[in-house]
Amino acid sequence: MAFAELGLTEEEFYRLTPRQTYILELVNKRKIERAWEQTREIAVMIHNMAGKYDKRNITVRQFMPLSFDRKIEYPMWTKEKAEELIRKWSN
Fold it and tell me: Where are the alpha helices (DSSP H) in the chain?
């Protein structure tokens, strides 16, 4: 992954901490997502303009859903639940 997608040399890779490698991975992933986001925006504009008499305008998410369109629901923690977990891990 680091050599192929990030374009790092072996020397550069071994100089990085795991955290730095992870951050580079996230940056690379976001660049790819932005490119796909732009591509689908253009495709939807072309589709909607070409079919202006058709009245079938679509949204970008209908046209091509991407992985980052999904909302991730995280459970809400109460103060009691957090304290319980802290006590559990402290023992």
Answer: 10-15, 18-50, 60-63, 79-90
The answer to whether the CB of 8 falls within 8 A of the CB of 2 is yes
What CA–CA distance (Å, rounded) separates 14 from 28? 18
> Tell me: the pLDDT tens digits for 36-79?
999 999 988 888 888 666 667 888 888 888 887 887 777 888 88
Q: Is 59 among the domain residues?
A: yes
Q: Which residue has the higher pLDDT, 21 or 63?
A: 21
Q: Which residues contact 2 (CB under 8 A, 6 or more apart)?
A: 8, 13, 21, 24, 25
Assess if residue 3 is contained within a domain.
Answer: no
Number of domains in the chain: 1
pTM of the model: 0.59
The C-alpha atoms of residue 78 and residue 85 are separated, in whole angstroms, by: 11
Question: Does some domain include residue 2?
Answer: no
